[in-house]
Amino acid sequence: MVSRVEHPAASYKKIFESVEELNEPIPAVITGVIPSWLGGSLLRMGPGLFEVGDEHFQHLFDGQALIHKFDLKNGQVTYYRKFIRTDAYVRAMTENRVVITEFGTAAYPDPCKNIFSRFFTYFRGIEVTDNCLVNVYPIGEDFYAVTETNYITKVDPDSLETLKKVDLCKYLSVNGVTAHPHTERDGTLYNIGNCFGKNMSLAYNIVKIPPVPKDKSDPIEKSQVLVQLPSSERLKPSYVHSFGMTDNYFVFVEQPVKINLLKFLSAWSFRGATYMDCFEPNASMGTWFHLASKEPAGYLSSHKFRTSAFNLFHHINAYEDEGFIVVDLCAWKGHEFVYNYLYLANVKEEWEEVKKAAARAPQPEVRRYVLPLDIHREDQGKNLVSLSYTTATAVLHSDGTIWLEPEVLFSGPRQAFEFPQINYSKCCGKKYSFAYGLGLNHFIPDRIVKLNVQTKETWVWQEEDSYPSEPLFVPSPGATEEDDGVLLSIVVKPGAQRPGSLLVLDARNLTELARAEVNTIIPITLHGTYKP
Ligand SMILES: CCCCCCCCCCCCCCCC(=O)OC/C=C(C)/C=C/C=C(C)/C=C/C1=C(C)CCCC1(C)C
Ligand SMILES: [Fe+2]
After folding, report:
1. Model pTM?
2. Which residues bind Fe cation (predicted)?
């Protein structure tokens, strides 16, 4: 599962460069055979504009949101992309400078304004970014492009037009939610976000958006906070990028990457501060696992799970088995924030420099943690995990905490299995076998990987000088096997005649079924949705 290629030509730099949007969809040249049943749209989000005027965005998560669409119909494929007309984008375009502070790039007041108006710009308070470059997914019958703040943007999945900006704070007590909600079959959607309450009280709120009501009104208006989880530290919530969900439980991993709220609230009055400046590691807390039940919704306060420090962005899957909760995830060892290594200047370095930086960074590992639900005081000091198929352990300590040790499902130095996907409709919250992911080689995405989480068998798709994106699994109609379906990934091959393509792989063995190529570079995309 480790990379078989090196990148001395450093052509990966091309996936971090600005492109123009398109005026109309362009037809793709197809090689191979696209399964006839595969009709729909692959929608993906990512950064597409990395500078405005003479100002450059600094961090990988700052570029302005570009929505991409590959349409598949009757064996034909077209590609289309548009910038989302967020306030961040429209104002940047109008003023030809960065106007709204992004994740790692500060906006400075307009130098043309007089000193009084600049002073008031500083003290008007935070203008939180709506740069929705992280993901696009359906809520009810609508599609939203999202980042991790309280602003989400409704888009038309056909025309890619921007429809409206929605402020979640109007409906929910959250400061933001993750870009990775969970959705049940009936359309019920769950998410988690930080909540900075009154009197500086802090919590993580799990929120629920119901399916479209009978009267067809907007389900977001009916959203509610389902359950509140406490923060390990007053004034310092942890960064949360995703969470786990089984049939009956939510799994929240509180990681040692903290948001210093005092810094956050004050930073904005200092010239040049960004969201990245508000993060700090907690070197002593390790990592805490929290459980909440779904129905009735409630926090399991007596289950105090602890383990050593790791960064967590992506859960793979979680499920219940014989009184245990199995949690599979993509870990990065240690408490130093992985995002510190994702400044554009770093990922656009020459290959030898990229490799040196990745050697200093936290190391990736796919891990399985097993959390016992049934805990008895007399079992102190024993391993409580009795599942036959795992070496993961959970030991009850005298202070009532349960120390977890994981089973390693995959580990390769500086070779991450990241941006994980599963057969979501069949397997979310259920015992499963297969995870698919993007292989990062010293942070550079250069292969698509499949992992059997039960046997640890792996499969790889890789091609010289090609940079794929997160592979989305689409099941074959009527499939009975978990991996009967295809993987869709956008691949960029900078030196090729048609450098952008949609790759269709057979999910059983990662063999190529087809590719649909277009004559344009496609910058990196983070996450997306397949809309049948
Ligand atoms: C696809 C190729 C990637 C190439 C390199 C990748 C390396 C990957 C290393 C690990 C995986 C990381 C996955 C991260 C994926 C991702 O999509 O992250 C994007 C996240 C963004 C843009 C987060 C934005 C968050 C913001 C603006 C949060 C703001 C807030 C706070 C910091 C404090 C509380 C309030 C608020 C406003 C929510
Ligand atoms: Fe993510």
Report:
1. 0.97
2. 180, 241, 314, 527
